[in-house]
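Question: Now follow the chain.
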Amino acid sequence: MRVTNNMLINNTISYMNENLNRLNKYQTQNSTGKKISAPSDDPVVAARALKLRTDLAEVKQYKRNNEDAKSWLEITEDTVASIGEVLGRARVLAGDASNGTKTPSDMEKIKAEVEQLRKQIIHLSNSTYAGRHIFSGFSTNTPLMNDDGTFAIDVVNYNEQIKFQIGIGDDINVNVPGGELFNNGADAVKGEVPAFVKLFDDYISALDSGDNKEVSNLLGTIDSIHDNLLRVRADVGARTNRLDLTMDRLENDTVNFTKLMSLNEDVDMAEVIIKLKSEENVYRASLAGGARVIMPSLLDFLR
């Protein structure tokens, strides 16, 4: 087969392009620090990278859910603590009013304060987090109680749990249904007076009539409602602790997935630099050799 100048030139250019492509590959790896810049560079590495990035994105979403859930529970816990303070103050006043030493004027003053405590309970029952009513079950856009102290909506305690997904197959309910706290565990029924508010209504009625014995009898009811409040608060605290443990696990997952991504995608810089210098030498040698192959022309033979 006759070898022509065009064949020599085309082969030289082809081999030089191959050398240039390898040089470009290592220059890209050196610049980006990554093994691949396109899926076609290494389909296996690309598929594994996509899976790891998806897993890491899921973990980050679970962390956001966890933080949102914890914020909701923290607001709930603070509100329940405030309700406990109101109830504690009501008990102190009941003990003071039931000893039989108070004048009618004193009883009026205690009554005025208890009426304000009743209003505060209704206000706290309609507490919100990010514009959502925390005790209203699924009806987060509706207050739990009306201004008169009756339930404004129906809330079925065990069916209206707002859940956040905090892991694969792992979720947690973040809300306390209104009846669970304000109706001693019974469901909230629209139009009915919660046990919590009824306590204050009876309290105010006893103070209004000056019935010290009835005020004394209400101490047991106050203690019963307080025990239920402590139960709810303990449950909220337990869920908050669970979120803290879950967040620790998610932080570890983030570190582990990030490490796996690095092992899968990142190059060994020392190895890349060595290969880059080697390909630079090869490419320069091919340029020099190509110059010698292409250099002779008709004029060179006529000299």
